[in-house]
Amino acid sequence: MLQRCGACGTFGYPARDACPACLSPDLAFTDAPRRGTLLSETTLHVPADVHFRERAPWRIGLVAMECGPTLVTHLHADCEEGGLVVMSFQLDKSGQAVAFAHPERETPNMTDDRQWREMTADPKFRRVLVTNGRSIVGQEAVAALKTAGASIVFVGVAEPWKPFRGEDALRAMAGVEIVPLDIGDEKSVADLAADIGGKIDILVNTTEHVRAGGLLDRQGTSVVRDEIDQSYLGFVHLAQAFGPAMRMRGSDGVNSAAAWVNILSVYALANWPVFGAYSASQAACLSLSHCLRAELRPGGVKVVNVFTGPLDIEWFQTVPPPKVAPRAVAGAIVSALKRGLEEVFVGDVAEDIRQRLAANPKAVERELGA
Amino acid sequence: MQSSIRTPYNRVVMAVPVTIPYVRYSIESAQWWIGRALKALVDGAGITPRDIDGFCVSSFTAGLDSGIGLTQHFGLCVRWIDTIPLGGASAIAALRRAARAVQAGDARIVACVAGDTNHVDSFRYTLENFSRFNQDAVYPYGAGGANASFALIARNYMRTFGAKREDFGKIAVAQRSNALRNPNALMKAPLTMEQYMSARPIADPIHLFDCVMPCAGAEAFLVMGEDVAASLNLPAAKILATIERHNAFGDDPVQVRGGWAVDVDELYAMAGIKPDDLDFVETYDDYPVISMMQFEDLGFCRKGEGPDFVRQHDLTIDGSFPHNTSGGQLSVGQAGAGGAYLGVVEALRQVLGQAGPTQVRDARVGLASGFGMINYDRGLASGAAILAGPDA
Q1: pLDDT for A277-298, tens place per residue?
Q2: Which residue is closest to B137 within chain A, CA to CA?
Q3: Which CATH number applies to A127-368?
Q4: Which of A46, A52, A72 is closest, CB to CB, to B138?
Q5: Is the confidence at residue A11, as pLDDT, over 60?
Q6: How far is B294 from chain A (nearest CA, A)?
Q7: Do B148 and A44 touch (CB under 8 A)?
């Protein structure tokens, strides 16, 4: 994404308030052709800032984009001076969008690049906690994270003496450890954090508490209270128990804390009355995630929100397709971590809601309530 | 040679070169340094602060004070004022503005001052808060500061024109040898080519001795009418020509030239001399590669011939091309905006014959230049002036 002048078509960078070619203020951010040439590079041995001092030597370069602007950029180690590069913007550890130059063609072990890993939260070599191993999404997430190279995946299971579907497969997986965790129970969460809190590089909150219904067809508040206890207060318990240690470990050598992942219903963004109270609990979690993101940012730990439409699980039995396969959510988690993204939308429903909200949020409210 | 249509700086002169000796770190404020420079100006001219009716100031570290706040701080009552935030081009710009003000009668005596302090952490602070483009699109990339930006420029220059590190080294080594004759220079130890080459890397190809040392200090001069200087019995220098140009060659993907190249013919036309007529040159040397670019852009050789020009010349005070005779910022230190003034003040001393141990023999006409403001990927501001002694 670069600014492009609506009047004369000139691409500009860094961000401006008037076009340097014609002074038009009409400068929308648009997808720009991503190719450029690496004109010059340098390796910084003595950066002025403590963050980069710790990470020196650090390589940056100057890229002339084919669409015009020159970008100061972070470099993938395989970029060669004078060669073609492909650019992307990434969120760095401070949450700032920064330019990153990739080699034009795929190179061996490309994603292991030291500077690239600073921009992402790649699960490879990292230690992960998946909070709910009883759910299919949790089990798929464990499998996907192991496949992506996570060194160990801890999986929370409430009341572990109770058997559950998929338990045998989970226990059979190498590098997976089942740990007792009931996120609705503050003490259970605190106990686990006391045990493994200092080892968690990525936390994937796969809590799932879905109940149909809105307000008027429910008697009393017990179902709503359950939703809040599990989804919202569960999130609070997790954040208070694991967040501080993760924030402290954001720069803890190569095994640093890197990301916190929430799986949220896309109806957190717009209430769907058929699952109205559930939507509200998800909206509360979304709001809290923004608070957590701001509070983890000083430690360089990303918060990733994975928005999904109704999952293909029994709690959404009555909902007609398209539904999202739990495996697709797991894939989206890994992909977002590998790419260092803060927000991803999984499946057709989530993408549909995203686009409609951008176009006309009031209409979405009315249509979901129709 | 082209002819200039600009009004010459007739009967306007510069006088009283002032340097407040630098220190690496200072617990004083920028105001303290500027105040000392003003005191040295009035003492040197034999006037009182009341006689100063024009004030032009540059500082990175004066906090919220611009020139106007400083008038009250220093008890100046002026009828002409300017605050020039052009970094390394501030002195040339100050000279140009002040000279025209005096010429037009808007001011009688203008004090041009740059002063900066250097607290233990102030350089990093300046770096972090330099400009919007810098904050958005440079600082987050490893926080290499000017070293990183000039590393990219230097590396491209080396590859494009065949400059070697030894060529930059020759500039730095010559300046150190000049600095050893300047008691105000912070660098007191000789520098050999071997030491230059084996110095630790900062941002390849920039190594330690390619970098200036940030420090505290102040520099200043007065601009006044020829008649005023005469009435005060002050030795004074003529301003033969000046140029200034900003954000030139924006389409060059990497900076290989500065704004001087746009106006260089006009510079010599106004002065009525050729580059060969200059007795010494004081370039803005935040990095040797920038001095080398100026050898090209200021007409001493063609673009790309800078490396060869350096190989062919002896750049020391007694050499074939006396350059940065004080030792320059590379060896004297960079006192913030004072770095812009260093070459101009030294040039003034040279043409007045007041340079003492760094005096170039029979120096009558010399050039000083300025360069500054790496807003994003290149230095934006540039300027140059040609000064002549009273007998030139």
Answers
A1: 999 999 999 999 999 999 999 9
A2: A14
A3: 3.40.50.720
A4: A72
A5: yes
A6: 21
A7: yes
| pLDDT > 70 in chain B, percent | 99
pLDDT tens digits for range A60-71: 999 999 999 999
Average pLDDT estimate for A320-330:
92
pLDDT(B24) > 70: yes
Q: How confident is the model at residue A255 (pLDDT cuts 50, 70, 90)?
A: confident
Question: Phi and psi dihedrals of B257, rounded to 5?
Answer: -155, 160
Q: Residue by residue, what is the 3-state secondary structure of chain B?
A: CCCCCCCCCCCEEEEEEEEEEEECCCCCCHHHHHHHHHHHHHHHHCCCHHHCCEEEEECCCCCCCCHHHHHHHHCCCCCEEEECCCHHHHHHHHHHHHHHHHHHCCCCEEEEEEEECCCCCHHHHHHHCCCHHHHHHCCCCCCCHHHHHHHHHHHHHHHHHCCCHHHHHHHHHHHHHHHCCCCCCCCCCCCCHHHHHHCCEEECCEEHHHCCCECEEEEEEEEEEHHHHHHCCCCEEEEEEEEEEECCCCCCCCCCCCCHHHHHHHHHHHHCCCHHHCCEEECCCCCHHHHHHHHHHCCCCCCCCHHHHHHHCCCCCCCCCCECCCCHHHHHCECCCHHHHHHHHHHHHHHHCCCHHHCCCCCCEEEEEEEEEECCCCEEEEEEEEEECCCC
Domain ranges of chain A: 33-115, 127-368
Residue B190 has what pLDDT?
97
Could you read off the pLDDT of A135-171 as tens digits, one per residue?
A: 999 999 999 999 999 999 999 999 989 999 999 999 9
Cα atoms found within 13 Å of the Cα of residue A224, Cβ hemisphere only: 14
Nearest by CB to residue B140, choosing from A46, A71, A92, is A92
- φ/ψ region of A159 (left if φ > 0, alpha if ψ in -120 to 50, else beta) reads left
| A45/B203 Cβ within 8 A | yes
Tokens of A45: 């041995």
Reference B235, options B243, B251, B224; nearest CA is B224
Alpha-carbon distance B149 to nearest alpha carbon in chain A (angstroms): 9
CATH: 3.30.530, 1.10.10, 1.10.1660, 2.40.50. Which one for A33-115? 2.40.50
- Please give the residue of chain B at the shortest CA–CA distance from A66: B253
List chain A residues with CB under 8 Å of B139: 49
Partner A contacted by B203 (CB < 8 A): yes
Sequence-distant (6+) residues with CB within 8 A of B178 are B316, B317, B324, B325, B326, B327, B328, B331, B358
Predicted confidence band of residue A47 (pLDDT cuts 50, 70, 90): confident
Which of A301, A183, A42 has its CA nearest to residue B157?
A: A42
pLDDT tens per residue across span B258-317:
999 999 999 999 999 999 999 999 999 999 999 999 999 999 999 999 999 999 999 999
The H or E element that residue A247 is part of is: helix A234-248
Rounded to an integer, the average pLDDT of B232-258 is 97
Q: In this predicted structure, what is the pLDDT of residue B1?
A: 55
Distance CA B281, CA B323 (A): 5
Per-residue pLDDT band at B2 (split at 50, 70, 90): low
Q: What is the pTM of this model?
A: 0.88
